[in-house]
Each structure stands twice: as structure tokens, then as C-alpha cells.
Write a sequence for this structure.
């Protein structure tokens, strides 16, 4: 069962490339990005340890059930609705960004709204499934895609075109004072723990999260690769000119393996899969948080027939995502993402502290 925790951790860590996290860090490469990454690793690790330790005292319970056991419903319902918005925004940024990338790199004549409509229909239908089904989809999706991602990252790190002098130059700015926006962007890589707010319902009694010591190691490796590899390929100055910096980085190398030559095509296909899986997961969690606001709706991790309310909520998510792309552009979306990451950081800290304190109370009363 520990693998469920790491599935959500890797899913969120990998998808950071689609959430402008590398671009935000690279934008501050001379003004505190390196020190911010170190601090974000500490904050992300502490949040992961605290939240998993707290949830281990509430086996089979999600965040809505935990809060309702101690707090009044009039307080819990607005919090759950706010958390649902956070989950929805993160996934919507990812899926809309990928729809634009398909337009930029695959077919410039294709309308991004048409692409997004096809993506959100698939995501909305998958998100309406049961929690158990969604977790199994995440498992299968990562098992199929993660090895290819690790392979591509390994080839990039070992590529002779990688300029280690440029990486060393930027790393020398480690003593520059960190910035809040960079810290918030770095912490996102570690926020896969928050998916357990719903998926903790699947865990049996007496379950304990193990191998958590791998979180800071793997998280810092993924975060460092996300930040330093584009700098090594494009240089300390040119790297700041790209918004989709990792797409351009993937296009900078080739593979000599039969029909696969441009890494960009392989990269976009893999991240299409990850974007759909991540959006499905976040929409499902947002749906469950919204459903928890209505006392008459029963919470179930599996069911034979999909409740009609699931289709309604996921349909609203799909329509809202289309409107989001229609009324925004890439630069506005980037600015919005920066503020959203900061708001998300403080929201997660508040929730983790609250649940941790409730777990202490539960342990004393047991």
C-alpha cells in the first residue's frame, strides 16, 4: 500500500514541468532560486512527514471525514470547497497548458480550444469514476510512463551537449537570499502528499507510511534536474527566453533508436499521458471535496453504478476549463500560476498543521 503514496508523489513531481515551475525558478536563477530550492526541499519534506504521520492515525478516512469529526459542518464545508478550487486550478493549468503546447509543436493550425475540449471530456469521464478506480488508473499510467521519463532524463543528464560550466555558474548564486515565489514553486514538487487527503480512504487499519526518507532525495533530484538541465543546454542567458523551457530542451537532443529521433515527440506524448492522469486525479479529488459539503451524499471508495452527481460536477469542471483557456493567454496564465503557487503553499501548511494537531488529540484520547 505504500506504493500508493509514491505514485501520487511521482505524479505531482513529474508534472511540475507543465506547471511553469522550471520557468519560475529559471526566472530567478540569479536572485535566489538555488537557495529557494534548498529551503523548499526542507519545507516539502516536513509537510510530507507531518501529513503522512497525521493520516496514519485516521486509516480509511479522508480529509473531509477527519475535519467533520472535530469541527462543525458550517466551518468544514467552506474549507472543503476552497480545497476543491485549489485542486481544480492546479489541474486546469496543466491541461490548458498542454492544449496550447499541442497547438505550438504538433499542429499550429489546430485550434487549442478544440484540443482542450477533447482532453477535458476524457479527463471528466475518468474523474467521475470511483476512488479505487482512479487510483488504479494512476498506478497503471505511471508504471507505463515513468520508465520512459527516467530514460529521457538520464539521456539528458549524460548528453555531451550539456554545459556543466553554465550549471556551475548558476549554482554559485546559492548564497543569494531566497524569494517566496521561488520557494512556493519548489515546494510544489513535494506536494503529492496532499493527494492522500482522498486516497487515504483506501488504506487499511494499522497502516503506516514507510520509506518516507526517499522523499527528500527523490524530490531534490527531480527538482534539480528540472532547473539545471535547461540551463546546461541553453546557457545562463538564453534559457530565460523560453516559456515552455522543457519542450525546447527536449527538442535540443536526438535519439538514435530506429524511428525515434526527436526527443520532443516522445516527451510530448509521455506528458500528454501524465497531464491527463494528473487532471483526472485532481478533478476526482475536487469532486469528492465538493460532495463532502452535502451531508446527504454518501462517501464510497467503490461503486457499481456511477452517481449522477459525479457527471454533473465533472461536467462543470470541463466547461470551466474551456472558459479558462478562452479568457486567458500564456503570459497571464504564467502570472496567475505564480500567485496560485504561493496561495497553495500557505493553504497546504495551514491544513497540514490542523490535521497534525487533530492527530495529536486523537492519540491522546485513544
Amino acid at each position: 500500500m505504500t506504493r500508493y503514496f509514491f505514485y501520487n508523489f511521482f505524479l505531482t513531481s513529474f508534472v511540475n514541468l507543465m506547471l511553469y515551475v522550471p520557468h519560475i525558478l529559471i526566472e530567478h536563477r540569479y536572485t535566489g532560486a538555488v537557495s529557494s530550492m534548498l529551503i523548499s526541499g526542507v519545507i516539502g519534506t516536513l509537510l510530507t512527514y507531518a501529513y503522512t504521520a497525521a493520516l496514519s492515525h485516521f486509516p480509511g478516512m479522508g480529509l473531509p471525514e477527519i475535519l467533520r469529526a472535530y469541527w462543525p459542518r458550517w466551518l468544514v464545508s467552506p474549507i472543503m470547497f476552497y480545497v476543491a478550487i485549489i485542486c481544480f486550478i492546479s489541474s486546469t493549468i496543466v491541461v490548458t497548458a498542454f492544449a496550447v503546447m499541442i497547438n505550438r509543436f504538433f499542429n499550429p493550425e489546430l485550434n487549442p480550444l478544440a484540443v482542450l475540449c477533447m482532453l477535458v471530456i476524457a479527463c471528466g469521464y475518468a474523474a467521475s469514476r470511483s476512488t479505487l478506480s482512479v487510483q488504479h488508473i494512476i498506478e497503471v499510467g505511471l508504471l507505463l510512463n515513468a520508465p520512459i521519463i527516467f530514460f529521457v532524463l538520464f539521456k539528458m543528464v549524460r548528453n555531451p551537449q550539456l554545459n556543466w560550466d553554465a550549471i556551475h555558474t548558476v549554482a554559485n548564486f546559492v548564497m543569494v537570499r531566497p524569494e517566496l515565489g521561488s520557494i512556493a514553486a519548489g515546494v510544489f514538487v513535494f506536494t503529492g502528499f496532499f493527494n492522500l487527503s482522498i486516497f487515504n480512504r483506501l488504506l487499511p487499519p494499522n497502516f503506516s507510511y514507510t520509506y518516507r526518507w526517499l522523499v527528500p532525495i527523490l524530490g531534490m533530484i527531480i527538482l534539480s534536474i528540472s532547473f539545471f538541465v535547461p540551463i546546461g543546454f541553453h546557457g545562463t542567458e538564453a534559457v530565460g527566453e523560453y516559456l515552455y523551457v522543457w519542450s525546447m530542451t527536449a527538442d535540443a537532443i536526438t535519439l538514435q533508436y530506429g524511428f525515434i529521433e526527436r526527443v520532443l515527440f516522445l516527451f510530448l506524448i509521455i506528458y500528454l499521458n501524465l497531464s491527463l492522469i494528473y487532471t483526472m486525479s485532481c478533478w476526482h479529488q475536487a469532486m469528492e471535496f465538493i460532495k463532502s459539503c452535502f451531508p446527504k451524499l454518501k462517501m464510497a471508495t467503490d461503486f457499481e453504478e456511477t452517481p449522477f452527481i459525479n457527471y454533473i460536477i465533472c461536467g462543470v469542471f470541463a466547461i470551466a476549463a474551456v472558459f479558462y483557456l478562452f479568457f486567458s493567454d500564456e503570459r497571464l496564465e504564467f502570472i496567475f500560476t505564480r500567485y496560485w503557487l504561493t496561495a497553495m503553499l500557505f493553504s497546504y501548511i495551514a491544513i497540514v498543521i490542523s490535521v497534525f494537531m487533530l492527530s495529536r488529540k486523537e492519540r491522546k484520547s485513544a
Summary: The longest strand covers residues 254-257. The longest helix spans residues 330-365. The beta strands are 254-257, 260-262.
